[in-house]
Every structure is written in C-alpha cells, then in structure tokens.
Amino acid sequence: PAYALLSMTGKEKLVAAISWIVLIVNVVAITILTPLYGATGAGLAMAIGYGVAALIIFFVLVQPTRNLLR
User: Fold this and answer.
1) Rounded distance between C-alpha atoms, residue 56 and residue 22, angstroms
2) Burial 6-18 (b: 16+ CB within 10 A, else e)
3) What is the pLDDT of residue 16?
4) Do 2 and 57 contact (CB within 8 A), yes or no?
5) Phi, psi for residue 69 in degrees, rounded to 5
6) How many helices (H) and strands (E) does the chain have?
7) How far apart are CA 35 and CA 64, in angstroms?
8) What angle do CA 34, 32, 2 make, to 5 degrees?
9) For 23-32, what is each residue's pLDDT tens digit?
10) How far apart are CA 36 and CA 69, in angstroms?
C-alpha cells in the first residue's frame, strides 16, 4: 500500500529508487547469507530487504506529516 500511495502522489522516481536499493540489499544479503545458512539465510536476507524498504518508506512518509503536526 505504501508504494501505491507514493505513486499516487507523483513520486514514481522515489518508488523506483527504493526498489533499486532493496534489490541491491537483497542481492548482497543473499550472496552472503545463503552459502552460510542455506534456505534460512535466504529467508533472512529477504526479511532484511523488506525491513530496509519499510524503514525507507516510513521515513519518507512520516517526515512530511511530522511538519504538519507542529
């Protein structure tokens, strides 16, 4: 839902940038963790990628609303 919200507000380039960042984080994490821990490492790497995406989106969406509350 957050990606859709960003896209509807005209921030398609930001959505693309977040997707690229998450892709890079996932590839690096999978490359490191899968040989060490197998399927568990791959799952952990995906969780790390989703966590990075959630944090970036959280800060992107919260920062503008934070100024409205002041």
Assistant:
1) 10
2) beeeebeebbeeb
3) 87
4) yes
5) -80, -15
6) 3, 0
7) 41
8) 85
9) 999 999 999 9
10) 46
Q: Which residues contact 52 (CB under 8 A, 6 or more apart)?
A: 21, 22, 25
Tens of pLDDT along 2-46? 777 777 777 788 888 988 999 999 999 999 999 999 999 999 999
One-letter amino acid for residue 69 of the chain: L
pLDDT reported for residue 34: 96
CA 61 from centroid of its chain's CA atoms: 13
Residue 33, C-beta contacts closer than 8 angstroms, at least 6 positions apart: 41, 42, 44, 45
